[in-house]
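#struct-help
A.M.: can someone run this one for me? Single chain, 207 residues.
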Amino acid sequence: MKRDTKMPQRQRSKRSAQAQQKGSIRIISGQWRGRKLPVLSAQGLRPTTDSTKETLFNWLMHDVYDANCLDLFAGSGGLGFEALSRGAASVTMVEQYPPGAAQLRENAQQLKLSSEQLEVVQGDALRYLSACQRAFNIIFLDPPFEQNLLQPALDAIFSAGLLATDGLIYIEAEKALDFDASHYPLALKKQKSTHQVTYSLWSSRIG
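D.P.: on it. C-alpha cells below:
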C-alpha cells in the first residue's frame, strides 16, 4: 500500500513558519561594530561563533583591509559582513538556499552596501567556482559538515587559479574531518580547535 505522504495544512504551515524563523549574528568590530543582522533558521546553518570570528579576524588584522574576498558557503554571511565592516574592498557571497540569499541581500540593503562592495550569488558553490574568472585575496571556506565539499572546493579553486598571489584561505570544518592539505600549494599559518570544529588559516605557497 502506498503511504499517504500528504501533510495536514496546519502542520505544513507550522514547518514553513519554523523554516522562516530568524535569529541574528553580531558584527564584532569595524564600522558596524555591535550591529546585529537577522539570519534565517535553516537546516544545517551553523554560523561561525563570535569567539572563533574574533580569533580569525585577529589573524587577518593586517590583511583584510582593501581585500577582495570570497565567502563561498556564505550561510548567515557572518564572515563576509565582518570583513566588509573591517574595510574589505569587496565580498562575493555564494549561498545555495534561495531564502538565505534573499536575506543576505536584505542585510546588504540595511548596511547600504553597493553592488561593487557586495555581490550575493544564489546558486551552487562548486558551479560558481567553475565559472568564476577572477582571483580573490581572501577566501572563506566553511562548508556544511559531512557533505564532502571541502576538497572539491579546493580542487576547483586551484584548478581555476582563483586565489591571488600571496592570498589566504580560511577553512572551518568538523574536527573529525581527515583533511590532507599536501595536495594544494598551501602553507599553514594559524590553527585552532574547539570540541567539534577545527579552523585554520592558510597562505598560498609559491614553488
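A.M.: thanks! The domain at 21-204 is CATH 3.40.50.150 (Rossmann fold).
D.P.: also worth noting: The radius of gyration is 18 Å.
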